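Quick one, tokens below:
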């Protein structure tokens, strides 16, 4: 790997500095956006894709301003932006840039993975640089991306190669948090080894040449908080991979479920919460904040989450 700072090391340093193994999922939906923001956006742009995108941008910006000092990273989910077409994708890009300017690590939740040439283009778009004449130009410019491995190594290695070149990272889907994940991921393929364990073996292989100064590689794994026993097993199978843990909060995961996702030194995992934070003002226990103070409610939700997780690991 080229002699450059590795993003996995920066992520670990951010977690240690802020004492927060937390990533906030910026997964906006119009039903989460307070009425006054939608009203302002629709008055300016109408009830159009542009109006929706503007409402989401103002919502994101307020959330980021409220929480960036408390957390090391954010995770925008691209589908929430794509649903509003080109205006939505523009907001995805603006959000990524805004977060990076605030010193946050950006994990692009894009779940890409395809045949080799297509994956190479995805990797360029999200982590690398596009060659345009004599120029090499960043596109979405995330720091990490999530990757779907189910087309095999030729769908993942283009991302690994870009990570080596750019010092960035990926999180490979291993055992996801959704209810139906076991339909495929838990199937026994060889003896008593489920498919997700075989994917974990490949994650170790893909990350061999990208280990940073803290002993973790640029190839991490996605393992859902909703499957704590699988998390315990995978922590042992993935000694050099950071684990991105979705499923906390709104999907049912709690701090007490997460102890075994972490290593003994309290590192090794970063836990995501999306609507549990960005839509906290709509949740039980946050009624006092009201709609106008939605960003303050999000900040309080981060503080409570940090206390829950740090008190459990």
């Amino acid at each position: 790997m080229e002699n450059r700072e590795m993003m996995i090391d920066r992520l670990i340093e951010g977690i240690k500095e802020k004492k927060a193994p937390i990533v906030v999922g910026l997964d906006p939906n119009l039903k989460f956006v307070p009425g006054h923001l939608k009203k302002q956006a629709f008055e300016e742009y109408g009830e159009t894709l542009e109006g929706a995108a503007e409402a989401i941008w103002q919502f994101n910006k307020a959330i980021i301003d409220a929480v960036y000092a408390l957390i090391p990273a954010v995770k925008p989910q691209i589908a929430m932006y794509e649903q509003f077409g080109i205006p939505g994708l523009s907001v995805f890009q603006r959000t990524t840039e805004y977060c990076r300017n605030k010193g946050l690590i950006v994990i692009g939740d894009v779940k890409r993975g395809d045949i080799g040439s297509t994956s190479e283009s995805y990797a360029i778009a999200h982590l690398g640089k596009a060659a345009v004449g004599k120029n090499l130009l960043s596109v979405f410019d995330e720091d990490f991306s999530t990757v779907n491995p189910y087309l095999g190594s030729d769908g993942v290695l283009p991302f690994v190669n870009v990570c080596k070149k750019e010092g960035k990272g990926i999180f490979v889907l291993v055992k996801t948090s959704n209810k139906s994940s076991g339909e495929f991921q838990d199937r026994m393929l060889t003896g008593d080894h489920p498919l997700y364990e075989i994917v974990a073996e490949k994650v170790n292989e893909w990350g061999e040449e990208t280990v940073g100064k803290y002993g973790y590689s640029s190839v991490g794994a996605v393992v859902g908080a909703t499957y704590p026993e699988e998390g315990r097993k995978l922590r042992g199978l993935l000694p050099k991979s950071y684990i991105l843990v979705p499923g906390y909060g709104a999907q049912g995961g709690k701090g007490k479920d997460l102890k075994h996702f972490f290593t003994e030194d309290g590192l090794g995992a970063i836990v995501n919460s999306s609507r549990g934070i960005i839509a906290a003002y709509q949740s039980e226990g946050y009624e006092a904040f009201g709609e106008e103070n939605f960003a303050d409610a999000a900040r309080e939700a981060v503080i409570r989450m940090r206390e829950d997780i740090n008190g459990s690991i």
